[in-house]
Amino acid sequence: MGRLYDYARAHLATNTLFLFSSDHGAQWPFGKWNPYETSVRTPLIAAWPGVIKPGTRTDAMVSWVDLLPALVELAGGTPPPGLDGKSFAGVLRGSEIMQRDEIYTTHSGDEPHALSEPEFVETPEGAPDKTRNAINGRRGRDAKP
């Protein structure tokens, strides 16, 4: 990642926004395909000289579906209506603290019986129901119906 960032800084404009994200990581234990907090979090690193102060951290929750509307807005456009995502340009610029109150995810492991698992919701750090089943309200290992 560092070499790519250095290349971009050397060959693109000095005000280039650099975004890095990654997959959820290993499947087990507590990796992707389950409703645990470590499963629904992915890294998102942003560097934007003159806009984002180096070392800045935020608790704003951003989903990958939010990338398109944010990039369209930052490029000067208007995100088209009907997109699932929500622009987080304000979070990047520092004019907003929170992006959204909840992010939904699904459990859809590779086993046939897991294809109809319910949706789960992730709420901000410190919220009483950080990871709970959106259908029945149960948390963690008790989340399966």
Overview of the molecule:
The chain is α+β, with helices and mostly antiparallel strands and 145 residues long. The protein has one domain (2-143): Alkaline Phosphatase, subunit A, CATH 3.40.720.10. It is built from 4 helices and 5 strands; from the N terminus they run H-E-H-E-H-H-E-E-E. It has helices at 2-11, 37-40, 67-74, 89-93; strands at 18-21, 44-47, 103-106, 119-122, 131-133. A 3-stranded antiparallel sheet has the order 3-4-5, with no helix packed on it. The chain has a two-stranded antiparallel ribbon with strand order 1-2. Strand 4 and strand 5 (131-133) form a beta hairpin. It is globular, with a radius of gyration of 17 Å. Residues 113-118 and 128-145 have low confidence and may be disordered.
List the helices and strands and how they pair.
Blueprint (H helix, E strand, L loop, with lengths): L1 H10 L6 E4 L15 H4 L3 E4 L19 H8 L14 H5 L9 E4 L12 E4 L8 E3 L12
Antiparallel strand pairs: 1-2, 3-4, 4-5
